[in-house]
Request: fold
Amino acid sequence: MSDWLVLVLAMLGACAVVVVITLVRHRRAPENEDPSETPDVIEYMTMWIGVVYAIVLGLAIAGVWEARSAAQDHVQAEAQALHEISERVRVYPPGVRDRVRADVDAYARYVVTTEWKSMTERGRVTERGGALLTRIRHDVTDYQPRNDFEAQAYQPVLDQISAADQARNARADSTGPTMPPVVWWGLISGAVITIGMVFALQIRRTARELVLAGLFSATIAFMLFLIWDFDAPYSRGIAATAEPFLTLIPGAGA
Reply:
C-alpha cells in the first residue's frame, strides 16, 4: 500500500470518527443540554492542551527531519570520500590506480543495488559491504610508495578511507527508527486527548462545527503521518537516497 494512500485513509478515518462520535453524542444528549454553557475552565484546558500538543508535534517533526537530513549527509560524505580516493590515486602506477578505482566502483554498485535494499527492508547494512570497503583500504595500505610524490599522496588517501569508513558507520547507526516507542505512545495518546477535548466543548451538529472538527482531526493525522514517514531515514516516502553513489559508477548517469 502506498504511503500517500495510508495518509489519505488516515485523514479520512480521523474525520469520520469525529463526525460519527459527534452525531452519536448529539443523539444521546439530554434535550435541555445547552452547548453554549460550557464552563470557562474547560475552554481554558482545551486551549492549553492544544498548545502543548502543538509544541510537542513541532519538536517531533523537527527531530525526525533533522535525523533524515543527517542520514543524507552521511551518504553524501561517504560518496565524497570515495570520490576523493579515486581522484587521489591517479599518481599511483596504472595497476594500483586501476585496482583501487575498480574496487571503489564495485563498492558503490553494491551499495546501490544490494545494501540499500537491506537498509530499507531490514534496517541494517551488510557484512559484504564492509568487506568491500576493507578491500579498498588494503589496496592502498598494501602498496609502498616508490617516491616522494607518491608518498605525499599516501596519507591523504588513508584519511579519505577513514572518512568513508566513519561515514559508513554513521549510515549504519541511522538506519533504524528515530523515535523511541515511548514517544510514539505519547504522541498518539496526546492526539486522542486533544481531539477528545473537542467533544468536551460540546460541539453542535452544525455543518461549520463538524467541518472544523474534522479538519482539526485530519491535521493531527497528517502531522503524525509526517513523523512516521520521516522516522525511517532510508525507507518510506520522503527518505535519503543513494544518488551520491551513482556519481562513482561509470555510465550510471547516462
Q: What stands out?
A: The chain has a mean pLDDT of 82. The first helix runs from residue 3 to 28.
